[in-house]
Amino acid sequence: MRTFFTLLLLAVLGSGLVGWDASRLLQAPLPLSQTESLEVPSGSSLTTVLAGLRERGIMQPPRLAQYLRLYARFTGVSGRIKAGEYALQPGLNPLDLLALMVEGKTRLHDLRLTEGWTFAQAVKLMRAHPAIRQTLPEATSEELMAAIGRAGVHPEGRLFPDTYHFPRGTTDIDFLRRAADALDKALAQEWEARETDLPYATPEEALIMASIIEKETGAAFERPQIGGVFVRRMRMGMRLQTDPTIIYGLGEAFDGNLRRADLVTDNPYNSYTRDGLPPSPICLPSRAAINAALHPAPGTSIYFVSKGDGTHQFSDSLQDHSAAVRRYQLGRP
Question: Domain 2-103 is classified in which CATH homologous superfamily?
Fold first, then answer.
């Protein structure tokens, strides 16, 4: 189709040198040595955009802009360019550029929310992203949750860890709402397919367990095993006794060292002094962690200790667990 219109344009321009020159310039790559951004504000005309590119040395020689305007007018797209940010990549020619702007193929930015992060860490990264427009830069976590339609919901664990792609100008609220919607969708799907006879009354409780599994997991393949340990403890009425909940409860007071005093000092997140689950998730759990909470591996182990290589030694009895602690944590046989 483009070749047809180009031939028609050349017919209008006339045969000979002018037609040859227009065809050559419109199909030749623009002088781009690396990817550059083009911002097209709302209401911009093609003439204005091309003038800006000419000033940047991209739309050269000057007659190239005239050829492209004539081509756009002849093909009926002159007034159809769309606002947004466009990626100008090496190899792009003027006709390709015009097609980008007419089709609205704007440049997408990305932001990765990593499993195991806290809500505060995710918000901090979002607020530092240059392509996200901050509408509530000073809002608290509770205020942000209200702004995305989840007033009263604890913010921790309510964003789905994933890589998100979005155009420049996306607002902080739109980004958070999208991540929260993704979490809701994943949790609902996993809850629907859950195993029977699990010790959770609600999807929220499963999400809390998933966040604990996420923080306890060094090797991804162990998630179901760790989930199995915690589920068996809950069924037995045994406390979870998991360090990540204590660390979360300590907040900024945690200095990297977990002391015995921390284990015996009661707070809502101390799973050594409190029965059952903590009052909220403690991080952003991955879908794999949610799946592990709802599909725990069968077995008999109720203890585990880190081997120091990212994996754990699982034990059925306190005696075996104590031996594993001596071996892997204290370096004694």
Answer: Endolytic murein transglycosylase (3.30.1490.480)
